[in-house]
Amino acid sequence: MNRRNQQLSKIHIAKKDLGLDDDTYRAMLMRVAGKSSAKDLSPLQVANVLRELERLGWQAKRGRAKPNPATDRVKLVGKIEAQLAAAGRPWEYGDGIAKRLYKVEKVEWLNPEQLRGVVAALAYDAKRHGRQHE
């Protein structure tokens, strides 16, 4: 999905989350951007509409939910979580490592051996960036 479609999706999600009826939504678009449909918005107008929706109380969900691994993998996933937190990186970063190393979409889908590989990759990343690691 391209960036514009993602932004337009956010607008429609915010509309739903805030419980805006169609008339109220279109009035807000007209007030903020001078348009009655999100599809007609310029990139700057999209940003202004999203800012207005946030001002009205909408909060975009950031990142993905914390993994829920199998019992035998909880410790390794916890270690990965700690490494990501220490690096200030989101779960998506760990998922990216899983995908690059093992062609698996999410950290929690890895087997224990693969999880140890992600731990090692994050330790290497910490060393490379001058952070302490275990």
Structural class: mainly alpha
Strand content: under 5%
Cα-based radius of gyration, to the nearest Å:
20 Å
Q: From N to C, what is the helix and strand string?
A: HHHHHH
The count of domains is 2
Average pLDDT level: 90
For the largest beta-sheet, the strand count, sense and barrel status come to: none
Which range best describes the helical content: under 10%, 10-25%, 25-40%, 40-55%, 55-70% or over 70%?
Answer: 55-70%
Distance from first to last alpha carbon: 38 Å
The gross shape turns out to be elongated
Work out the number of β strands: 0
Describe this structure in words.
- The chain is mostly helical.
- It has 6 helices and no strands.
- The chain is elongated.
Structural key phrases:
single chain; 134 residues; mainly alpha; 2 domains; 6 helices
